[in-house]
């Protein structure tokens, strides 16, 4: 009566706290997910969770199945890896570059987990390289690039990891602090703090300011997110960052955040991989681990289609 898909669905429901977000996580419509859960409850003869609660509250039967899922699904994953090794797919090289200053929050746990399970694969993030990562990937100098700015290159596949919203961080006492969202004209008299990258790689310029023909009064750069937050908190400027990068500062009420525009600016983070590498079992496992780790440690992200 109980299938693996049921266990994955229950974990997604627990982790997200709602049917809508759980359906996105397991790539189903809300109607299909509700039907799947109702069918399982009918088979078992008892409810698994209480409807119309947020976050979702599980019954004793639901909690028992959650415990089963936590035990069984990791064992299935490990068995799949072991079988892949037996099939001779364990050796390889994974040299990567990261076009994302705030990605280490989820990437480091991903790499640590991957190294433990694929010790035969050489993992490295080369430092001090002076080349454009995506062309270097095509030249086989790299094996994977984390990017939010895909470029059409031959033999390169962009695997979507998750969607994120860019938010504007401002000081608590800032004139924009109480706004739910800001418009491009709100930034024309502001100092905009960014990472030291080209404006063409920043959503706040390419998808918010430039389409409206607007520019900030001044821009300045900072290498670290922590330094950017200190500058923002002391009213030395404002900055746009992915929602997950702002979580800890918002929880501490260190800064405030506004959406960019009424609908918000949402981007997608990708793992760029050469097509010939996609058939490697360990590469598929790294991408799957990266996606699962992201949803385990980051707040506010959404599944990518």
From TrEMBL:
Q: Which compartments does it reside in?
A: Cytoplasm
Which InterPro entries did the record assign?
LysR_HTH_N, LysR_subst-bd, MetR_PBP2, WH-like_DNA-bd_sf, WH_DNA-bd_sf
Please verify whether the record's keywords include Mitochondrion: no
Domain named HTH lysR-type is located at 2-59
Give start-end of the signal peptide.
Answer: none
* Gene3D superfamilies assigned to the protein according to its UniProt record, in alphabetical order: Periplasmic binding protein-like II (3.40.190.10), Winged helix-like DNA-binding domain superfamily/Winged helix DNA-binding domain (1.10.10.10)
Molecular function terms in GO for this entry?
A: DNA-binding transcription factor activity; transcription cis-regulatory region binding
Q: Which SUPFAM superfamilies match?
A: Periplasmic binding protein-like II (SSF53850), Winged helix' DNA-binding domain (SSF46785)
Q: Which Pfam families match?
A: HTH_1, LysR_substrate
Gene Ontology CC: cytoplasm
Write the record's keywords in alphabetical order, separated by commas: Activator, Amino-acid biosynthesis, Cytoplasm, DNA-binding, Methionine biosynthesis, Repressor, Transcription, Transcription regulation
The GO biological-process annotations, alphabetized, read as: methionine biosynthetic process
Q: Does the keyword DNA-binding apply?
A: yes
Annotated PROSITE patterns:
HTH_LYSR
What family does the Swiss-Prot or TrEMBL record give for this protein? Belongs to the LysR transcriptional regulatory family.
What name does UniProt use for this protein? HTH-type transcriptional regulator MetR
């Amino acid at each position: 009566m109980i299938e693996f898909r049921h266990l994955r669905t229950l974990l997604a429901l627990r982790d997200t706290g709602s049917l809508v977000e759980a359906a996105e996580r397991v790539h189903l419509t809300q109607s299909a997910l509700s039907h799947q859960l109702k069918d399982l409850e009918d088979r078992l003869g008892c409810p698994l969770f209480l409807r119309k609660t947020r976050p979702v509250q599980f019954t004793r039967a639901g909690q028992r199945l959650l415990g089963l899922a936590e035990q069984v699904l990791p064992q299935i994953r490990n068995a799949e890896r072991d079988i892949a090794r037996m099939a001779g797919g364990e050796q390889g090289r994974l040299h990567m570059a990261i076009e994302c200053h705030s990605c280490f929050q989820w990437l480091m746990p991903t790499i640590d987990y991957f190294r433990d399970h694929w010790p035969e694969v050489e993992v490295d993030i080369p430092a001090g390289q002076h080349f454009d990562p995506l062309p270097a990937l095509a030249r086989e100098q790299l094996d994977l690039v984390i990017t939010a700015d895909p470029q059409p290159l031959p033999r390169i596949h962009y695997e979507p990891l998750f969607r994120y919203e860019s938010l504007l961080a401002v000081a608590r006492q800032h004139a924009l602090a109480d706004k739910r969202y800001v418009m491009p004209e709100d930034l024309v008299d502001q100092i905009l703090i960014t990472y030291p990258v080209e404006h063409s790689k920043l959503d706040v310029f390419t998808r918010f300011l430039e389409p409206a023909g607007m520019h900030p009064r001044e821009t300045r750069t900072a290498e670290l997110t922590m330094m950017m937050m200190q500058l923002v908190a002391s009213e030395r400027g404002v900055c746009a960052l992915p929602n997950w990068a702002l979580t800890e500062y918002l929880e501490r009420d260190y800064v405030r955040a506004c959406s960019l525009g009424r609908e918000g600016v949402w981007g997608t983070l990708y793992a760029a991989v050469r097509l010939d590498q996609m058939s490697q079992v360990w590469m598929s496992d790294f991408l799957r681990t990266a996606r699962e780790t992201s949803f385990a440690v980051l707040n506010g992200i959404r599944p990518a289609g």
